[in-house]
């Protein structure tokens, strides 16, 4: 008798696991919409750590070798990133950085950097 009870326990635990795993899978599938790649805040904060190694924290580069990307126009940033990815703007370093990224991911990066405080400014005519 005792043996049988243990067995039933094991089976039901297995079923719970199956149910949970199935649920987790469904959530992931829903979030990524099939082939679409994640471009949410988590992805942005993770990815921009790589960018920071050259472009500085939040895109404020500390060296002349790397452009300041903080506070540039979002449209311009997106245009540049797409151009690097698609090979229209040729740069071995940047081409590699954005290779394989989706439009949504490049848009999220462009938005992020356009919103950062920046030493750049646009002179205004008065
Ligand atoms: C290994 C160093 C390095 C890393 C990492 C890097 N970049 Fe760059 N980035 C550069 C260099 C060098 C340039 C200038 C290239 C050129 O002359 O076109 C540049 C240029 C750019 C430009 C164009 C700026 C302008 O004023 O036209 C953007 C936008 C940019 N990077 C965004 C990013 C983003 C977003 C990431 C992270 C996904 C990233 N970079 C990671 C080195 C790097």
Automatic annotation (TrEMBL):
Question: Does the keyword Electron transport feature in the UniProt annotation?
Answer: yes
**SUPFAM superfamilies on file:** Cytochrome c (SSF46626)
A Gene Ontology molecular-function term?
metal ion binding
- UniProt feature coiled coil, ranges: none
The UniProt keywords, alphabetically, are: Electron transport, Heme, Iron, Metal-binding, Oxidoreductase, Signal, Transport
Q: What is its EC number?
A: 1.9.3.1
Segments passing through the bilayer: none
Show the Pfam families listed in the entry.
Answer: Cytochrom_C
Sequence ranges assigned to domain Cytochrome c in this UniProt record: 35-117
Top EC group:
oxidoreductase
Per the record's keyword annotation, is Coiled coil included, yes or no? no
Cleaved signal peptide residues: 1-29
PANTHER family named in the record:
CBB3-TYPE CYTOCHROME C OXIDASE SUBUNIT FIXP, CYTOCHROME C4
Supply the name of the protein.
Cytochrome c oxidase subunit I protein
Organism listed in the record: Salinisphaera shabanensis E1L3A
């Amino acid at each position: 008798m005792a043996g049988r009870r243990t067995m039933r326990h094991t089976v039901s635990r297995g079923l719970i696991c199956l149910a949970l795993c199935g649920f987790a899978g469904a959530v992931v599938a829903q979030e990524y919409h099939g082939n679409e790649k994640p471009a949410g805040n988590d992805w942005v904060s993770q990815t921009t750590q790589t960018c920071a190694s050259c472009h500085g924290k939040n895109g404020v580069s500390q060296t002349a070798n790397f452009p300041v990307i903080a506070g540039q126009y979002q449209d311009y940033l997106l245009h540049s990133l797409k151009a690097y990815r698609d090979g229209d703007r040729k740069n071995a370093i940047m081409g590699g950085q954005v290779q394989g990224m989706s439009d949504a991911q490049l848009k999220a990066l462009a938005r992020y950097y356009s919103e950062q405080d920046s030493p750049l400014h646009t002179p205004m005519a008065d």
